[in-house]
Design brief:
mainly alpha; three-stranded parallel sheet; 3 strands; 9% strand; elongated
Length: 208
């Protein structure tokens, strides 16, 4: 859970390098959820801001205060931006169940409506494990069009690979026993691995 957002941002950046795609990342933590009208309007505002800032594309003024209007906006997004659009939406748990259901339904409709067009909309959504199994499981609007991927603890080999990357600047050649010990005390928890390696780098830097 601690690393889901960095993973989403990294995936967004990687997808943005694919020829013919514009990738946009938004977090529902930044969206207003006082009402469904404010919710959809704030999502539109986030997409307009991100499109201008990261893709240098200006989206037209459109009113999105309902599920149907949001569906239309998302469906037109690839055409307006002149590229395939990969949309990454993080922190689903920030929205109420009703608003989240409406958003997922709008995303599904827009995805389906662009599948046979020259420019398409693809979507990745992310939530904590407790919500992901509910919102993205069999009863989700994403059923049959998406795959649920769980971010789980790392095994010993992956823990050591991640540790080498995190330690590289201050300790380019860590001992094998040290890497094994990091896995032993963290049990592959990504957040703990990151914190342990960060502390090691801080100590190594202080000792020059």
């Amino acid at each position: 859970y601690h690393h889901k957002s960095p993973i989403m941002r990294a995936a967004c950046k990687k997808m943005d390098k694919v020829n013919g795609y514009i990738s946009l990342y938004i977090s529902l933590d930044d969206a207003s959820s006082f009402s469904s009208q404010n919710f959809f309007q704030s999502i539109r505002h986030l997409l307009v801001t991100k499109s201008l800032r990261y893709a240098s594309r200006r989206l037209p003024q459109m009113n999105q205060s309902s599920e149907a209007e949001m569906t239309r906006f998302l469906t037109l997004l690839p055409e307006v931006l002149g590229a395939n659009v990969s949309l990454f939406i993080d922190d689903l748990e920030a929205a109420s169940p009703a608003m989240l259901q409406s958003l997922l339904t709008a995303l599904r409709a827009a995805y389906i409506m662009t599948t046979d067009k020259a420019l398409r909309l693809v979507v990745a959504v992310c939530a904590s494990n407790s919500l992901a199994r509910v919102a993205l499981g069999r009863a989700s609007p994403f059923e049959n069009i998406s795959q649920l991927i769980l971010v789980e603890d790392l095994n010993s080999s992956d823990t050591q690979k991640l540790s080498r990357i995190l330690l590289h600047k201050h300790c380019p050649f860590p001992e094998s026993e040290a890497l094994q010990y990091i896995y032993k005390i963290s049990n592959g928890d990504r957040f703990l691995v990151s914190e342990i390696c960060h502390t090691c780098c801080h100590l190594a830097s202080a000792r020059n």
